[in-house]
Amino acid sequence: MFQRYSPSLRFRFLTALCAALILALLALAGVSKWLILPALLAEERSVVEQELDRLERSLKLEEQDLLAKVRDWATWDDTYDFINGDAPRYSEVNFSQQMFEDMRYQLMAFFNARGDIHFLAGLNPSSGQYQTCADLANECAWMAPLVASMQASINEDPEQEKTALYAHIPPAIVASAPILRTDGSGPPTGWLFKVRKMDNNWLALLEDYTGLIISLDVVDETKLTQTDLLRFSNTIHAQRFLPLNRPDRQLALGTRLDRSRYFASLDTFRYVLLWTFGLMLIVIGLVLLLLERMVLRPLKSLARFAQDANIEALTNNPLTQRRDEIGQLAQSFLKQFERQAELTAELTELSTHDPLTGLANRRLFDKNLIDATQEALNQSTPMAVMMIDIDYFKLFNDHYGHLEGDTCLQRIADTMYEVAQTHGFFIARTGGEEFSALLPNTSLQQAIKLGQAISDAVDALAYPHHMSPLAPHVTLSVGVSALDPEEPANASSLMRSADQALYQAKAAGRHRVSQFNSPLASAEVSTHNTPP
Ligand SMILES: Nc1nc2c(ncn2[C@@H]2O[C@H](COP(=O)(O)OP(=O)(O)OP(=O)(O)O)[C@@H](O)[C@H]2O)c(=O)[nH]1
């Protein structure tokens, strides 16, 4: 037959915990993707920005250094005189190949007040040789692009000292200042420009200074962003775009950084994730273990107790001592079992005893009779039965009423029960005013005596019955029968014999004990001195 599948509580818990675990993992994955990883990348970007800031500051320092040097030369009376043609040996005394190399100058350009070239000196980029020029002709032609930019700068803002990055190959740092007297007086008499090449040697110096690997490019297009990042598997290439003297060009100052810090953070995060997952599994295991010990096992025990309805075992079980919900459940079970036992006892009592007299009823008597007869036959032991009937009880009821009749029945039953208890036999109410007794291990003679004892006890009770033609009190007629070892018998034949004996006692005048001898002959064994 089809049986509906019902998962166990353990399975349900496991499923719920696994679902919770999966949800937690999904949440962790979400947190990783949308919070942690972006945060790590943002942190990496901030580190890169800091490095680029440092790089840019180093470049600014270079510009300021060059500007300081230009200012120093430009506010010097010798330079002032040189522009005005009053210091003929100025260049010889002050300039040399050695000085340009030591100061890392590529070019020094002097302009007069009109912005025309006064004097040029520099290291030729092709030969590396020091040279001086009065104009841009011949071997000084390499200076032309730089000089053009300088003259444009003078025209643009003639008053101010300034620094700029020139978009040449290689790019260059250029600082300029108006030429004044040493005390700063008078109008400028010209301009002095110094050019420092940003070539590989310059880069190498900056790399030494900053500890970074640096790249430098002049790019054509103008980038909208100030910083560009390109991430590779183990390195990150970052560029900072700086303005050049030409608006259509930018200087891409770049560096290549390794991503070890990012990957270390990532590894730490993965390690934390792994531990979190492991701890979750441990917690799930612990929860299941605790569930097994604290809930499932006690519930199984309770289910066993419920099946067996074993009150004693449950009473002694520590479960009933617990103060938690399981303890309350166990106590409820116990109370329920006790109540059920009481009800069962009451039902058994009701189904096997007569409610009026409290004696066993016919049902119990018949059962005991069958068992006892069987045992007596098996063991070949004697056994007897009695049928007892109250004489003229209809007259009693008619005269005293039914309620009084009930009371009379109770008193007679109590009296007979005491005799049965005293002599160790079993008595039951098997009809309205009819009783039966079962006497194991009792011979016919002994049973007759016990029948007589019952009748005597009722006589001694002297329960008034003024309507009885026999005596002024209630009397009994008793029929006795016993198993005959010679005759085949069973429970019903034995009771039939007792009934016949009772019938004979009634027929013989009542208030007497009769024994059953044979189907045709029975004998009255005792009579009372009652009027016929
Ligand atoms: N009060 C009361 N009367 C009962 C009960 N059961 C049976 N009786 C009465 O017992 C009487 C029995 O009457 P009968 O069978 O004629 O017997 P009797 O009057 O005792 O006459 P004999 O047995 O021949 O001496 C009837 O009146 C029944 O109503 C009961 O539980 N309570």
TrEMBL record:
> What is the top EC class of this enzyme, as a single word?
transferase
Domain of life of the organism in this record?
Answer: Bacteria
Protein name in the entry: diguanylate cyclase
Q: Which GO terms describe its molecular function?
A: diguanylate cyclase activity
**Domain GGDEF, first and last residues per copy:** 381-518
| Any GO BP annotation | cell adhesion involved in single-species biofilm formation
> SUPFAM superfamilies from the xrefs?
Nucleotide cyclase
Catalyzed reaction equations: 2 GTP = 3',3'-c-di-GMP + 2 diphosphate
User: What is this enzyme's EC?
Assistant: 2.7.7.65
Q: What is the lineage of its organism?
A: Bacteria, Pseudomonadati, Pseudomonadota, Gammaproteobacteria, Oceanospirillales
Per UniProt, which keywords does this protein have?
A: Membrane, Transmembrane, Transmembrane helix
Its cellular-component GO annotations read: plasma membrane
